[in-house]
Amino acid sequence: MVRKLHHTRYRVNDLERSVRFYKEVLGLREVRRHKSPRGSELVFLKAPESEELIELCFFPDAGPVDVQPDLTHLGFEVESLEEFGRHLEKLGLSWSDGPHMKDDGSGFAFIDAPEGYEIELLQRPGVYLAGKDGGAGAG
Predict the structure, then answer these.
(1) Whether the predicted pLDDT of 129 surpasses 80
(2) Domains of the chain
(3) What tens digit of pLDDT does each residue of 97-109 get?
(4) Confidence (pTM)
(5) Which end of the chain offers a freer environment for a tag, N or C, measured as fewer CB atoms within 10 Å?
């Protein structure tokens, strides 16, 4: 029986572009990189409070990556969707869907990674409920 989730792999068309996205937009840290026995270039990334890794794989021999809509996504918790939205704006990016907020202060929104993989950002309940005058998720 398995003990825990170690990593998830996403194949990409442009390794360095994708690594920059995950580091600069999401704030992930590069843990290691190496070449696999079959020739794939691999980069492992980690979120600050998670043990699980994301493995980005560049393997041009398999052809270009063509991500179908609603195929898969990664979900990351953020402290505030409003603050993350401002971060996106500074980078010249925007939400692809949302934010969608609930009365308890929780919510979610999506952005797209370079190949079209969806990235879901989740805000836990209770965040910024006091400032509901256009607070979290207003932008």
Answers:
(1) no
(2) 1-59 (3.10.180.10), 72-133 (3.10.180.10)
(3) 999 999 999 999 9
(4) 0.85
(5) N
